[in-house]
Amino acid sequence: MTETVLELDNVTKSFGGVKALNAVCIAVSKGSITALIGPNGAGKTTLFSVVTGFARPDTGRVIFSGHEMNGYTPYRVARMGIGRLFQEPRVFSQMTVLDNVAVAAKCQPGENPFVLFASPRRVRLFEDLNKKTSLEHLEFVGLADKAHLAAEQLSYGQQKLLAIARLLANEADLLLLDEPTAGVHPDMVDSILEVLRRLATVGKTVLVIEHNLNVVLQVSDWVYLLDEGAVTAFGSASEVLNDPALQEAYLGV
Q: Can you give the pLDDT at residue 195?
């Protein structure tokens, strides 16, 4: 039986008189790539904000790995193993690519001034291991040869890959990716899709907001269609995207 990693149970979220989410129910399976699609304003980004603690649901439950997370702060959600890629990659432009990843590691002893001065060997050993692990994450996303560059020297698509590597450094098991291919040069799209597939093969779970339907067809195991805050269809990518009524009514194709 497939394990459900993330579940939204009748989640509703309103802003003023507008229901951004209306009794949303979704389930995301471990090791899968699940896509959220729908027109602008459908509630996709609000759903991400509710899951990651940036917005609190008015009603309903958000459950991750069996734990109800209603009211959890973003840092607590991140510590549980949920990482979020925003539409903009938000890299530290002046830092090296390697340092961008290394800074995301949890429980760094050098952050404690007492440990820094009382146990410098412990700090040094951690930093050596962190550097090695960070290079492995960069290798995973195909950026190991760019480790010494400033992050601002990367292309926009490469910066998105760097942001994904940073989520791995923070030990995220569920990755929420908001339009990872938007604004990316076509030559880089295939590289990003390959990384998404690799994430699933190593046991990570991916929930992705995506407007590029070709991308959805290529990588998604399951699709939820949102419209006006409600789930209006779900199923495999081919089932949802090839339904003529849905194409005309919601996707404009």
A: 96
